[in-house]
């Protein structure tokens, strides 16, 4: 799905000219519980409170609120709106042509921040490119948005204009990691095959209106075949190497959920910047300096890193050929990071044994070859079994708790920056430093 619908995915801006990386270690943040005050709660990380700007009613900074009203955190919003003059343009004003007119005529004055608390709305103006960014008043200091993904905004150009862009990927990390665990297990236990064989033939059978189908039916055959044959290709995750491409908030949570002492997987990772030894020790994670090394070592590869700056795929035909035969593959990052036809080739050839994709290159359209591999077809001449691909609808980060966190974290980022403190989850500080 083309942005600006900013659905959850792993955070951070890639360093130019490098493999995408994730922010890590996770930044210290205040509580993201509903309606939290600005006081902090205790977690495994040191926490800080967000400074709150104090102004008279005549001098309060203006915050441009784009998208739907606050839904989950009214107490925090009351604090937020008392510190700032919040202006929320109408839906019609947020359409690109009218939005441009409004910026040119300074309809909302010299606002200091842009606030987008909900990923499903607030993107009516389309991509934040030079056409929009060049029209922003010099007073803008911070752009804080729901969602983890930000390929719909030119964060480099924002940074060069002196605007800190803050995402809310931290709020989605647990939901995405939980979803990834399910997908990883799916590649070991072939859940699409097991689920489809139990339901799909019955639903599509000519006798589907009856309460049951005779044991001699094709539907019953599909059930019995899966029951008998899935065992031969299913494995416990324990003892297998889980290779994580990107080791930020999401990658580290996946490692914690599936590593030694829980599911018993051996954790390996590749990231542009190696994580502190204390993090590696805590998560029993082995660092691989190159992507090739990780691909050649892993039994299951999980993509949890941001989209590349140049928009090119990271998992190409060449990268897939470096995997060991039968390697499993999971993508909960961005569809643009994967050459999906090359992945389909690798599945047909047995290089990849099973895959699970929550994100797709041309959303909402899903690759037809991968759809076919998610069903109950008999496979191909290589002897591949059916139902080797799990496909979902960019759902990984989509929970109520995630959206609560999106709102809370977006407000906290603005409070922090306009209060004279540090942003909590900035993604483009290196572009601001370059400008300085």
TrEMBL record:
Residues 1-52 are annotated as: Disordered. Gene3D superfamilies: NAD(P)-binding Rossmann-like Domain. Residues 15-24 have a biased composition (Polar residues). Residues 32-51 have a biased composition (Low complexity). Belongs to the D-isomer specific 2-hydroxyacid dehydrogenase family. The keyword Ubl conjugation does not apply. Residues 128-428 form the D-isomer specific 2-hydroxyacid dehydrogenase catalytic domain. This is D-isomer specific 2-hydroxyacid dehydrogenase. Residues 227-373 form the D-isomer specific 2-hydroxyacid dehydrogenase NAD-binding domain. Keywords: Oxidoreductase. GO terms for molecular function: glyoxylate reductase (NADPH) activity; hydroxypyruvate reductase [NAD(P)H] activity; NAD binding. PANTHER family: 2-HYDROXYACID DEHYDROGENASE-RELATED, D-ISOMER SPECIFIC 2-HYDROXYACID DEHYDROGENASE NAD-BINDING DOMAIN-CONTAINING PROTEIN-RELATED. The keyword Oxidoreductase applies. One of its GO terms (cellular component) is cytosol. It comes from Cercophora scortea.
């Amino acid at each position: 799905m083309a942005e600006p619908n900013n659905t959850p995915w792993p955070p951070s801006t890639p360093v130019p000219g490098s493999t995408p990386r994730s922010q890590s270690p996770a930044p210290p943040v205040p509580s993201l519980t509903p309606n939290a005050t600005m006081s902090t709660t205790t977690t495994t990380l040191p926490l800080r409170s967000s400074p709150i700007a104090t102004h008279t009613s005549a001098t309060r900074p203006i915050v441009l609120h784009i998208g739907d009203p606050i839904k989950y955190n009214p107490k925090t919003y009351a604090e937020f709106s008392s510190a700032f003059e919040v202006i929320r343009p109408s839906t019609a004003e947020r359409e690109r042509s009218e939005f441009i007119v409004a910026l040119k005529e300074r309809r909302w004055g010299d606002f200091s921040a842009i606030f987008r608390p909900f990923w499903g709305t607030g993107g009516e103006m389309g991509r934040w490119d030079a056409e929009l960014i060049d029209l922003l008043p010099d007073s803008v200091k911070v752009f804080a948005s729901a969602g983890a993904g930000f390929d719909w905004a030119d964060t480099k150009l924002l940074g060069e204009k002196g605007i800190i862009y803050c995402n809310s990927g931290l709020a989605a990390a647990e939901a995405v990691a939980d979803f990834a665990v399910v997908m990883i297990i799916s590649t070991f236990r072939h859940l699409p095959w097991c689920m489809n064989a139990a339901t799909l033939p019955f639903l599509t059978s000519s006798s589907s209106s009856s309460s049951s189908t005779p044991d001699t039916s094709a539907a019953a055959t599909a059930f019995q075949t899966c029951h008998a044959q899935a065992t031969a290709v299913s494995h416990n995750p324990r003892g297998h190497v889980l290779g994580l491409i990107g080791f930020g908030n999401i990658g580290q949570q996946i490692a914690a959920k599936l590593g030694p002492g829980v599911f018993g997987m051996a954790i390996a990772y590749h990231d542009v910047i190696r994580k502190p030894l204390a993090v590696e020790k805590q998560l029993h994670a082995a660092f691989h300096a190159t992507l090739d090394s990780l691909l050649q070592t892993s039994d299951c590869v999980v993509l949890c890193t941001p989209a590349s700056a140049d928009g090119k795929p990271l998992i190409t035909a060449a990268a897939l050929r470096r995997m060991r035969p039968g390697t499993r593959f999971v993508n909960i990052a961005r569809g643009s990071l994967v050459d999906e036809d090359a992945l389909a080739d690798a599945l047909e050839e047995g290089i990849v044994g099973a895959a699970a994709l929550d994100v797709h290159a041309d959303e909402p359209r899903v690759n037809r070859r991968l759809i076919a591999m998610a069903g109950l077809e008999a496979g191909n001449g290589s002897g591949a079994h059916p139902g080797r691909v799990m496909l979902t609808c960019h759902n990984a980060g989509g929970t109520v708790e995630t959206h609560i966190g999106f709102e809370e974290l977006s407000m906290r980022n603005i409070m922090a920056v306009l209060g004279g403190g540090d942003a909590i989850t900035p993604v483009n500080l290196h572009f601001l430093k370059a400008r300085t």
